[in-house]
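#struct-help
A.M.: can someone run this one for me? Single chain, 732 residues.
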Amino acid sequence: MPFKPIQQLNTVLKQEYFESTISWALRVVLALNVPLIVIPFWKGFSYEVIWAAFGAYMLALIDYRGPHYKKIMIQSIEGGLIFMSAIVGMNVANSVTASVIAMFVIGMFAALIRNWSSYGASVGVAVGFFFLFGLSNPVSFNESLQYGYYVLAGAIWAILITIISFPFSPSNPVRRSVAKIWKANTDFLDVLIQKHASSENTDSVVIIEKEVAIRESIDQSIKLFARRESKKTRLKAQHYDMMMELRRTSSLFGATLNTIHEELETLTNPEFQKIRDSVLYKTLSALGQASARLSIVMFTFRAEDLTLAKIRTKRCEIAIRLLKEACDDLRLSDTEKIAVGHFIGTLHKSHQYLELAITQIEEKLKLTKSDYLENYKLSFNNFLIGMKPRALMELIREAFNINSQHFTYALRVAIGLSFGVFVYKFFKIDHGHWISLTMMIVIQPYFGATRKKGMERIVGTVAGIVLGGAIMLLPLPHEAFVGLLVVVSFFVAYFLRNNYKVGVFFVTIMMVVLMQISQQHSWELIGWRVLSTLIGAFLAIILSYVFWPVWENKRFPLLMENALLQNKNYLAQIIKLYTGEAPVGESWNKFRRVAEAANNDVFASAQRMVEEPEHIQNQMDLCFAMAGITIRVAREITSLALVTTEKEKANVATELSQFLIQISIIFDWASSHIQKPAIPSKMPDFSAIKESLNAASFSASGQTRFIRVELEKILFEMETLCLLIKEKKYSR
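D.P.: on it. Structure tokens below:
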């Protein structure tokens, strides 16, 4: 049975992630249940208590994993928004026309809030929820203020929970974001072992997905935790700076893995295959074990785990040496020897990054516990900076970053919610506000995602109603239902993060229990709840199909254009670095990140195409093929990038500069023709650029021969892409 390094991680990583999720779920439980328990002791139980509980619950559900000061800002803004939306809902509830118009405005607003980030959807749903909650509770303006004060009280309680939790884990968000990069690297290594060093068959799409996951984890960490502008500030924050260096090392280690994969794809000689299941397997397994151990160290930061990581890294060094000795005994051609030599050289680079990470962790562990106060100071300083007018304006601009796609999505949501409110009010459906609430949750920017979420919502709701209804029939005292609510609300928070369908199941049970507590339970009411959910999910799917749907066959060409542009820029930067033309101190890693992000967008577009109706899909297999080309081009450029880090560089500057001019023409041709319905012009002249790679200077050394091979691979991929475009095998 082949070794899978990630299996050794499962226990530790799941435990760490589970603990993180538990801490978040416990905060949600406290937010929801403390108002339900404490306020009745003070004022007795009343319907307003539910409003306070939901106010706290909605704020606590924000799954923001960045600095505390930003989360507090986001929660404060959300608290004000839900207060206003609840007041508006209660005051327009007696008019069908006013309800529909107000729903349209709030629906547009809530949908645009989605642009904030991954937490935007939570804020948007909370705003829409309280407006709809207000529609179901028509009262006078003074009475609406009374309910609103309860909402604000719940919001303040949720913010207080966030503030109280601040001192306990000031550095954990940064550390966990870097740890996830190492875990993603280990996942990628796992599938490489299965594909190249075992008898298992691994789909190339799975490999690309793991490769994409590395880039996503890096981008997420960069988005949440940017480098500080200057290290000469009054607050040194050594721990923070060290984590940023560890993030850079993890990114470079991931770059070597991309190159390892690309090189293994070409090492198909039968002689090399002799060592695939033995020495190669042992070498990649050793690398995987070392990466896995570093992942664990990043999660735990325990000295004993670091010792094990050192042992695995040393074993990796020995395995690479044994692989080199085994390859020396193979009967290979000169070209194959160069390929094998560079593969082993890349393994050495991977090993060096492992050692560098260990050194960086050792330096971090040497810092005294008192130095961790730097993190508190840094967070507090960031909080003060974040409250400045300029920072607040940046947050507002980010919130309302409107483009045509965001606007049409918001318009679709607003029309759908307004229609749902009209049905609810016109036909006077009991608790019919669940129609629009379901639509608001289900409607996604893409049709495939909407259909999937709609089905999950239906399944989870129906299952939850069945079990919740059975619980409602039990002759339990009020206190027992409060205790049950504590347990159920915990599972709601946990599963909404991990499994949406199961999360909806527990949400439904929670709503039934809340009805029981507020004395609003009945089978008729539950029946209307199920019917409203079914209507809402069905309407959401219909609206996503009819009103300005975003089809991937329309978006794909534009994304391909951007990917080609970014890959061209990436290649240009690497050649300039090699020839010494790049500005001093400029890194290639930034260009790699942008190019890979653009490639990921292309691949994600092709994946979303699978979920769309068959008659909408347009040559989906070729879209995947083209996405694969951009990803492979970036891998090959990364192989060249690693050569630029070598101290000795061969003198091929003139040839490389000429190649860049010629290949740029090919990139531009592909980009400019990818959306044209017909290709009247001729393909670029590949013969001249191929001939230029036969220059004698490219045969001067092993390094130059490797460079030529990588350039030939890039050229091959671009010629394949141009043929697909020219022969119209791909079209809009």
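A.M.: thanks! Residues 181 and 459 are 34 Å apart (CA to CA).
D.P.: also worth noting: The two ends are 45 Å apart (CA to CA).
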